[in-house]
Amino acid sequence: MKLIAVGDNVVDCYLDKKVYFPGGNCVNVAVNAKRAGAEVIEYIGVFGNDDKALHIQDVLSKEEIEFKDARYAIGKTGQPQVAISEDGDRVFVGGPKDTVQHRFKINLLPTELEKMKEYDVCHISVYSSMESELKKVAAVTSVSYDFSNRVDLEYIRSIAGSLRFAFFSASDLSSLEIKELVQELKPFDIEVVGITRGDQPAMFVHKGQFYYQVLRPIKVVDTMGAGDSLIAGFLVSYLNGNSIEQAIQDGTISAEKTCQIEGGFGYPKELS
Questions:
Q1: The Carbohydrate kinase PfkB domain covers which part of the protein (predicted)?
Q2: Which of 39, 121, 159, 255 could form a disulfide with 230 if both were Cys (CB 3.0 to 4.6 A apart)?
Q3: Rounded to an integer, what distance in angstroms lies between the CA atom of residue 135 and that of residue 124?
């Protein structure tokens, strides 16, 4: 199984511990897909020229993620700030808005699109600013897209026709709102829709059938990146030919591993 991820890279800054971890949806999916057994993983994104970007690149090299087609720009790496809420959850509390991720977008070259034909799937996130490129990507390979918690229907309809896999974070939605979302997606014939629901089992819709994640009791250290790990493990398993049930189980195992370490996949560094 070969996966290419195109889009965001950031460092998650843990204010309470004064450390940061490499992350971003596309980087998290790339690293965790490799750990889940993908044969080849490549990442294309925009790197800043600060120490945080160098840390992300060093980590990708250690994890055997190729990034030779990445873009490089003068500017800051995205660095969302994370604090502890009153009930113990990690919550994002802001971060700079003048990062390279905000300043620049990726326009894929014809040679890059041609190369994507060799990959089973291209994973992109809502934070990647890749909407204008989706049709080009969908013409050469399958597209996996993480909407995160963006569920406004006008936006979804504008890109849903290019997607084979769609993932949502719906912890803030009621059961009725989730059902309405699934109903709205029906006309687009998306092969798999995955919806995480906070502390409730994730729900997957495959060819009109509903499937639910089976959660096991584990010691949770940190939930940062767990949803990204679920996506990564699921895609690797499903695109290796496993059943939808097995792919959900494998995705869950991937997410469990992430929940038992700090950060999206480890590699803390002191926050100065």
A1: 17-263
A2: 255
A3: 12
Q: What are phi and psi of 76, to 5 degrees?
A: -85, 150
One-letter amino acid for residue 147 of the chain: F
Q: Which fold has domain 2-265?
A: UDP-N-acetylmuramoyl-L-alanine:D-glutamate ligase (3.40.1190)
**Region for 136 from its dihedrals, namely left if φ exceeds 0, alpha if ψ lies in -120 to 50, beta otherwise:** alpha
Residue found by looking up tokens 């963006």 in the block: 150
Instruction: Please report, to the nearest 10 degrees, the dihedral formed by the alpha carbons of residues 115, 104, 156, 162 taken in order.
Output: -20
Q: Where are the domains of the chain?
A: 2-265
The residue type at 189: D
Answer yes or no: are the C-beta atoms of 6 and 127 closer than 8 Å.
no
Residue 110 CB burial class (10 angstroms; 0-12, 13-18, ≥19):
exposed
Do the beta carbons of residue 130 and residue 104 sit within 8 Å? no
Token digits of residue 234: 């699921």
Residue 170: φ, ψ to 5°: -125, 35
pLDDT digits (tens, 9 = 90+) for 196-255: 998 899 999 998 899 999 999 999 888 899 999 999 999 999 999 999 999 999 999 999
Is 12 in a helix, a strand, or coil? strand
Q: Which helix (H) or strand (E) holds 168?
A: strand 165-169
